[in-house]
Design brief:
By secondary structure, the chain is of the alpha+beta class. It has one domain: Nuclear Transport Factor 2, Chain: A (Roll), CATH 3.10.450. It is about 50% helix and about 25% strand. It has seven helices and seven strands, in the order αααααβββββααββ. The strands form two sheets. A five-stranded antiparallel beta sheet has the order 1-2-3-4-5. A two-stranded antiparallel ribbon has the order 6-7. Strand 3 and strand 4 form a beta hairpin. Helix 1 runs antiparallel to helix 3. The relative contact order is 0.12.
């Protein structure tokens, strides 16, 4: 009985330490991203390439774009060549930056608070981070990061849920649709890839993929 209780306590302490580690990592990286964004806002209009590079450097410390892009391709990733997967990764990231950079520059985020970190009950290498974002106007958005422990030992974001909408799945549906429309031509899907994400205020909880 004593051994069993000791093991349970040790497990609980370990899990608590992990959630604290994840919380701190997300808070620090989010603060760093917001600070770099504020610093680079003025370059968006004059030197967009510099702006993209700086934001990419900041986001890449927290977000596993390769993992996300692979999941967006879904089952089609197995049919694609390594070169096609790499090209889609580059196009996917570029599309994200071009679609949302203006919104980031014009955003008026008052606060971002990590509300809760929940470990995946089936894996101690996966967790969900719930965040509350509040704008200067008082609008609030519920965001959930799905994070995983990668081979390098870092916790990285592999998916995002905004106001209850799974963004990764929405993009995967978009890829599947484009794949069908282009009759299985992955190169055509990559060449024409473009997507925007619109998140409305809390009252409507709206989100659209275009």
């Amino acid at each position: 009985m004593v051994i069993a209780v000791t093991l349970l306590v040790a497990t609980a302490v370990s899990a608590s330490n992990i959630t604290d580690e994840i919380r701190l990592l997300v808070e620090e990286n989010t603060s760093s991203l917001m600070a770099r964004l504020e610093q680079e806002k003025s370059t968006y209009a004059t030197d967009p390439e510099h702006f993209y590079r700086e934001i990419d450097a900041a986001l890449s410390e927290l977000v596993s774009f390769r993992r996300i892009a692979g999941r967006v391709m879904g089952k089609h990733a197995r049919k694609a060549t390594k070169q096609q997967r790499n090209r889609f990764l580059a196009v996917f990231k570029r599309s994200m930056y071009e679609s949302y950079s203006k919104a980031l520059v014009e955003s008026s985020v008052a606060s971002m608070e990590v509300k809760k970190v929940t470990m995946n009950p089936r894996s101690n290498k996966k967790a969900t981070v719930n965040i509350k974002v509040t704008s200067d106007s008082g609008n609030q958005y519920d965001i959930a990061y799905s994070v995983f422990h990668d081979k390098s030992g870092s916790w990285m974001v592999e998916n995002v849920v905004v106001s209850g909408i799974n963004v990764g799945l929405a993009f995967r549906d978009r890829f599947n649709q484009a794949y069908r429309e282009n009759k299985g031509n992955i190169d055509a899907v990559i060449e024409n890839w473009s997507t925007t994400l619109e998140v409305e205020d809390k009252a409507s909880h709206g989100l659209a993929i275009k």
